Amino acid sequence: xxxLQPVKEPKASTDAKVKRVMIIVSKATLDNVYxxxxxxxxxxxxxIEAELFFTFFGLEAITKDKLKxxxxxxxxxxxxxxxxxxxxxxxxxAFATSMMxxxxxxxxxxxxxxxxxxxxxxGVKMWACRLAxxxxxxxxxxxxxxxxxxxxxxxxxxxxxxxxxxLMFI
Length: 170
What we know:
Blueprint: E1 20-25, H1 30-45, E2 49-54, H2 84-87, H3 92-106, H4 112-122, E3 125-129, H5 130-135, E4 149-151, H6 153-159, E5 165-169
Helix pairs in contact: 1-4
């Protein structure tokens, strides 16, 4: 068996370092939301600015009456390693969601509502997409209080200026 060696980090000048991450959250499946939150939280822990832009179905992650009911997508998710037909069976999505939540709880990963509070307290700026809000007939009061506000896509891109800013789409 081959032993893997640690990867050596490339030498980078201080100008080339990541200074800000702008994460676009487009889906509110539990796995996508947690991936976004963990990336934003990790950035803050490294002293990197982080912003989350919730658009389309990603808005459910910050909608007060929906954020506690996010689930794992079992149909069309190749990482589930189950046939699509099985993923569509009644109760399969609830079962997979329950299993994932149990595993996250073992790792002391907070539930979505608590994680949002942690992100806000750490300085992560969170924004809702104006177009998606209009499309889904949402008002700002439908969303969490820790939201910075509502932006158009153009406003979001204008915030992404500057060297060392990285955009991620999840």
